[in-house]
Batch of 4 targets.
Target 1
Amino acid sequence: MDTMKKPVRVAVTGPAGQIGYSLLFRIASGAMLGADQPVELRLLERAESASSARLTGTMMELEDCAFPLLEGLSAFRDPVEAFRDADYALLVGARPRAPGMERADLLEANARIFVEQGRALNASASRDVKVLVVGNPCNTNAMIAMKNAPELAARNFSALMRLDQNRAEAQLAKKLGCRVADIDRVAVWGNHSPTMAADVSFATVKGEPVAGKLDAAWLHDEFEPVVAKRGGAILAARGASSAASAASAAIDHMRDWALGSGERWLTMAVPSEGEYGVPEGMVFGFPCRTEGGVARPVADLAISEALRARIERNVAELALEAEAVKAFLPKH
């Protein structure tokens, strides 16, 4: 162990849920931060006794795995304590959409959660904390947390759209008869919602452009709808949400953010600095590269008019979401 790095603190909210269960063992195994990075897991569970009992069982299993990298394991009810000195925070817990619930109701219910968590991060997390919001609607939840943490840099916050990229790459690999690792430069722009713009205009397979290898009808009629509506299709098929793939995408997102993406593109929803006409501060999905723990949208891409229109549609949708939660945003 003396050759290992100093342990880092990883906070996870909603650890008793299905995504949390799929996530925690992979973090503790080293899949997220590397085989030489010890971690201390700090778990925030605010729910009632059933969730508390499930979390107790999950923690027992984590202990029984005897992960060499797991140097600490604690559960908290107070978010300020859970986030104390956290280097990474994965905000998974969120109010699920109930039958008959309108999106505006879902936005408001979750806004209350992410106001509290943003304030708690602001109060006690490391000033360099990397915050990934998984709980939906994740773009707007990330914006709420970010705005309620004024002492943390906006670039510390992101929302999970890597799952959409992973879904897009898997569909392309299946169509082209190649490995997912052969695919690069797939982008998903905008909001993690059915309006998202899955974009292959810059994509390559084995270093060659995919342009000309895919027909427009397949892209419009199959590829784009499958990527946009995949979560609903999985829910219908298995009677439960896509927890394992969401957890895997969160691991991918954090690993590449922390360790660097090299020349490969990854889709991250990050606070805009005005790139591609997206309003500043809007948490928006861009093709990004990461280096030194900083994620930056790929610059100066030639955007077609069709893609520009789809980006604008996502901007409009996120603006409506922001309007619906404006009571939860600081006035300054």
Target 2
Amino acid sequence: MHKSPFNVVHEQLGAHFSDFNGWSLPAHFGDVPVESTSLSESCAVVDLCSFGRIQIGGKEAKETINSVFNTKNGKIAPDSWVWAKPVNPDTETLCRIFRLNGGYTLLTQPADTETLCQQLEAAAEKGVTVTNVTEKTAMLGLYGPKAFDSMRGVLPFDIDHLDRGDVEKMSLMMMGFTLLRGSWLNGEGLELICPAAAGPLAAGAIAKYRHKHNITPAGMDCLQAAMAEIINPV
């Protein structure tokens, strides 16, 4: 059973844990209807550590990705992310890919990580590296129509320049953080990826200011229900 780097903060907030694709994650924090309302009407923070993060690097990384995935416009601009689906017509798997600092990162739904990693490795051109960094990193999602505004008061750096679909690398206390504007729910949101060791720091800061900025901790029960209603964006 994998444990989220955020678990110590989840415990402090009264999380009720369950098994989600081999990860011990909050199922809820005691009131699922309140969590669901926050997700749809204001801002909810959810643990995305079980979602896969696969880095693809090398001169032919783009060609490798295009041989495995279809994207909406056929390309990925620097410092941005796009929706993607495997070229295999028999699968409905939905993914996201972002391009940052010359490299690419594939974001997968929890059950798809290993399979998609193997497909990328099998298709990799010479010199292309495929690295599963899911367990070495941590990921939080701030989701809901007021998520971006809520996070303005929490993050110690300016984010007003980020448009939906943007990705940016930032540094805090000598650690690199990646911010994505967007969400798995195809709506407003801000996602943060950081080294696993920095997880408690990142989650602790949000927990500290959650009341002031109207941020509600939400569990996987709430997130999975919302994801089941997504209209295919690709």
Target 3
Amino acid sequence: MASKSPIRVAVTGAAGNIGYAAIFRLASGAVFGPDQPVALNLIEVGPGLNALAGVVMELQDCAFPLLTDVVATGDLNEGFKDADWCLLIGAVPRKDGMERKDLLGINGKIFIGQGEAIARNAKKSVKVLVVGNPCNTNALIALRSAGNLPAENFFAMTRLDENRAKSQLAAKAGAHNSVVKNVAIWGNHSSTQYPDFTNALIGGKPATQVITDHAWLKETFVPDVQKRGAAVIKARGASSAASAANAALDTLRSLHFPTPAGDWHSVAVLSKGDYGISPGIMFGYPLRTKADGSWEIVQGLPIDAFSKEKIAITEKELLEERATASEALGLKL
């Protein structure tokens, strides 16, 4: 066993499809590195506890060299105890006939409780990534419920949208997705998010030079990325699980390790007004992680008229979500 102290990761919804797809890669060393021990706090609600017991058996049966210990619990205080990272996956999915306000009200209560429990039990340096939808506003609710924990340590996942965008740009350009860089996802992890092709690079060249069909970029690429989640549901009869788990782990890795020079990664953070966005909403930005583990929003990117229009739409939705959640929960968010 390596001599480093383990990184303790708390995972809610741990026996669900996304949790199941994420946990084994966390335990294997695929996220924090081949010499970094990991401890897992796995959290489920009552009906999921039997399944969680089976997941723990499977973790034992993998005999991961880096996995130091596993806590499996339905108790938030125990689940978040001493956590370095909280991966908040568990949330009530939107059902037929359910209004967005209903969903925000139900999930809002969940994330109030989780934010309070994180503040009581996790390390003061804990970082929190929200995956459960609507993840931007759920992250805001958790942040506002977490007392004096640093706002800069709360994130909502937009990496799935970034990965989708990179893949589609690569396919159109006849290139491998590894050569697509600098893709920003602005705004909400929803059908209003804006996958910014105007600042993207393919093989070191502007994407708009490599892909000369600009009508495709505006009229096909953008809506296809925005609606990709719905396309997956239509095709497989269930929402994205493996790709969502992969994106969550990509996000953890990108926030843990310094960002390679000249690139960035996308994640939603609390807006302080950068790029003219209203403060106080969890907004997707391009970020760079520094060597000390802190991060900064990439500044000075040119935003053309098309991009401004798309960014304004997703900002409006997030402001409406915040107002709806505030009303549903009786809170000032």
Target 4
Amino acid sequence: VSPLCPLLVLAANFAVLTFLKFWREERQKRFLHGAFSHYLAPAVVSRLAANPALLTLTGEEREITILFSDVRGFTSISEHLTPTQVATLLQRYFTPMTGIITDHLGTLDKYIGDAIMAFWNAPLPVSDHQDRAVHSALAMQEELGRLNGEFRETYGFAVKAGIGLHCGMVRVGNFGSKDLFNYTVIGDAVNLCSRLEGLTKFYGLRLLVSDAVRRRVSNDAFFQEIDLVRVKGKQEPITIHTVLSAPEWSDRGAELDLSGEARELYKAGRFAAALRAYEELMRRYPCRLYEVFAQRAAALCRNAPAGDWDGVFEHTDK
């Protein structure tokens, strides 16, 4: 029997299987590019396409740094604009902010009205995700300052935004219904990050980060301790901080020294001395933060806390 026919069959099988494998891999790469190109940096998408095994869509527990950003008073802003103007303003705002996040290897999760949710360290590992998230938040604030020049000229007003950052274990993967789902993160850390963003309004600050972020950051950012709080719906108190760039830290040195002294007096339960320090801060550097603590210290002077003072302030609003 001639061996030619079996050899031809084997060669044909090899050619067909090779073609099918190549076609399947190309289809998978196109799917990954289409699914993630709007949410991730191009370099990250290329890494995923080259090695799809790095991507876990079924869900896994992982430490993630989460960012929430929200435009202040957007409902009032919308009242003075047409729907088309609102859409144009949001596009001009979202485009550079999203670019900053993806440039720092972050993943855009979703837009929630005028808010942005993003996270780091998924779908690909990012070893310094806390640093990159803080860098992104500072860059977003700087970019908003530039955008406000355009907004004042076009709309006659400036836009303010608050940012919250937190780091913790979450479940990351595809979530939703059987027919409609999206790649996102779920867990208590997400809820806490949202609460931190909401507290930026209470303290009159642009950025608040948890102590979990502060402990893991190794870049040139500078932290100012703000408060020890128990947010709504949580039992464990957390220390919150704001982040300053190196130029801000240098320019505000005298203020930050005095603020640190006032903070230590408050934590030690020396409310009368803390009140005097915060009143001096209010006189020299008037802002919402020092007003909050001056009022709180005055109230504690009138009604001293019973028992041991732990310095925890409980927020009852989101």
